[in-house]
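Because showing beats explaining, we think one record worth quoting, sequence and backbone structure tokens together, and here it is:
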Amino acid sequence: MTVRRDFQEPARCRPELVIGHEELFTAAREQLGRGGSVLLHGPAGIGKSTVLRSLAAEYADSARTVLRCSATESESHLPFLALADLLGLVVGEVADQLPAAQRTALESALTGRGESSLQRDGLALRLAVLSALRALAARGPVLIVADDLQWLDPASAELLGFAARRLGDTPVQMLCAVRTEGQEYDRHLSASPPDTAAVRLGPLSRAQVSALLDHRGYTGLPRSTVRDIHRTSGGNPLFALELGRALAESPTPPRPGEPLPVPTSLRALVLNRLEMLSYEARRTLLVASAGARPTLALLHAAGRENADAETGQAAELGLLATEPEGTAVRFAHPLISAALYAEASAQDRRAAHAALSTAASDPIERARHLALATTGTDPDVAARLAEAATLARDRGAPSVAASMGLLAARHTPADSRPSPDERRLEAAEDAITSGEVDLARDIARDVLTRATVPADRVRAWMVVIEAAGQALGEVDAVFPQALADAGDDPRLLALVHYQLAWRGLVVEGDFAEGREQAAHAAELAARAGDRRTELLALAFQAQTETLMGHPDAPATIKRALKGPQDPEVACHHNGPGSTRYRWLIMSDQLTEARSTVTALLREVRRRGVVESEVHFLRLLAETELRSGHCGRALDLARESLRLARDTGIGTVASALLTSFAEAAGGDVDRALALAREAVEHAEEDGDQMYASRALAALGHAQLVAGDAAGTVRSLRRVRELEHGLGITDPARGRWHGDLAEALVRVGETGEAQDVIDVTREHARRLDRASVLAVLDRAEALVRAARGEHEAALAQLTSAQDRLAKLGYGLEEARAAFALASLRTPRRPGPTAYDEAARLFRRCRALPWLRQVEAAAVAEPPRHVPVPAPAPALDALEGLASMERQVAALVMEGATNREIAGRLFISVKTVEATLTRVYRKLGIRSRVDIVRLAAGRHSK
């Protein structure tokens, strides 16, 4: 039975040989590994040959014979050419095994001697190819590698298909690639072995195109340029690389509003069809290529009277796609539009834009076309463009506002007010808002090369700092220069000290320093009447005080939320709204926290503020995770991570939050990978705050994965980092219960109790009810390990009830799981886990649900402090709890791996624990433990 699959590209991408096609490469590899065949298909330049070569190189060693052919269009008329490529060098090895008639027909076809043809020797040739392949396969596996099947000569294609359909269990595999524009690969699939998987290669995402360009050496491109490359190439890797090469070779990058330079190699792919169009039809298509959303009505308004007939002709030639409505004009591929525009003269382009500057209905579009039709400076044009930028900003399109702002600066005379540099800086700030941080940084750096006005210079420095994101250490030298340019101006100093507050937190890892700088910035801003900066500084101060457990935190939050409020700051990701959310979530007010962050997310999406959108998506995901809505949390976290990676904003924060969500409701291995990625990047940036949060995510994922020792290592580091940072509020990271639980699992109950006691003191002082309930859950495990069974059950029951009332669904389910795990051996069986399974299922906490299902059928259940056999209990006196559990299981005959599985710890932890047992009991091996048990039984 033939298998057909379409694979979607993964969200993430790595600089590997088959960039962007990792998942389908893996699927194709698995298909070949099972002995099946693979047909790769997709449009030209999509990467089929690259994937085919990679797979062929990987599987060539496993085949005794590899037969290859790669057809070309210019040779497709030559009969039997592909067959000669495949069998020409090996037919001599098996010729004597073929019947005479088959041998003669095959040799005649391969050598060109005689007049062999399918009409004359059809059956003999078909059977000859089949017999030859069977004879080769009798010596060992055969792999046929055929690229560009669409150019196979018809005779070879017919013979190969005949043989492929009849190979049966013969160890012959086919690895082929064919160019298709849609799904029309059926005829090639019907000529493949029955067990062939059809794998379609689709376009790359923007992030994958970026990775591909970096891998090929086209590095340092602004994200806006990568976005244009992705849009123009349609995600086609070949087209994207050619566009990247053209940019690298171009002495000057395209100006704002101008399309990318299209190299001759790509123009030739599409422009030969233009020769069949009339001059006027080509002019019509040029106007369409210059428009943002061309329609027939727009072309008519731009003076193209015969647009209907001319676009119809272009559609027949495959230059335009046929639209059902019949009004929109859409090019069959974005590259056609780009090539057409690039081929036109500058005069013809300006004429097209001039026509559209009056024909377009949207004022922003009219302004853009007016700018591109105008040469030199023009204050009226600049004013129109500035108005368009304001309109785009109000519409929530900051990326468009940045583009309009740069065009306005380009047409602004040097002596105008606002100046060209002021308009450039406004465009840079719009670029920051839209997530195009590379563009913003480049604009600011350009302004700094010539600006002398202090306000312009400080404003530019602020853009440079904002563009650095969490990597503030990379721009550390900027701060003294910004302070020098600010002089004694309180408004400018407030801006710099606000950024110094972030530096104190991120670079120095000093919450007290960050709080002091923020308070100073708020004071300076109030003196200067800069309410926006004052609100941001107060919000920062409030968040810092909250995490420090500072007594002034509530008062500072009230000051930050007090009117008058700036609408932009109110929904800013570092503004008072975010501060209020953080206070609510840490105070266990989940319902109000959700409504707050939902409103903030709605507003920033309306405004098009990408960085804030990434941030609030994370916060909403965190809220859903706390509430036990793991599926919803996972969807939101993944969306945040995709957007963060696409824009380069907040990737560490989104990765670590997604790690928590994956560990709760997704894939634990993915959770571990994301957490390690976040730790690595945070440490590279020198960001201690995010390093501690990333380590907390790693420790949690390790706990879910069963690596208690790893959890202890990670969360001990978190404890050290937070102590150094001055963080005392346990509701900030909520890792303390995980650390205590992991310590119990590795037998360190004393340290576990210390963690609980210290954390409980802070939680009581700050009234963190959910933290106290989680600590009670962890303490119940400590008590159970010490043999205080009834007290542990009572404490767990109380903790579960309180977590349920607070709305912490996942933590409630974890308490139910622990409660089921502590049932006595007299009440074993799956029914003890029913409630935990129900609660985890309600949360859609799949990793935890799998643990419950495994524990329900285990004897004894997982997480249970396993009792030692009664006759040997006195032999284990003096051992720690974990040591007693491991020794007891050895006495039962369990292997180290079985012990690790039943106690939910790693094999290495089992080995280390046994080493301590041997030392304490004065024995040398596990055999001695068994003998010890046997000796006790005999007494």
Remarks:
- The longest strand covers residues 172-179.
- Confidence is low (pLDDT under 50) at residues 1-17, 824-830, 859-873.
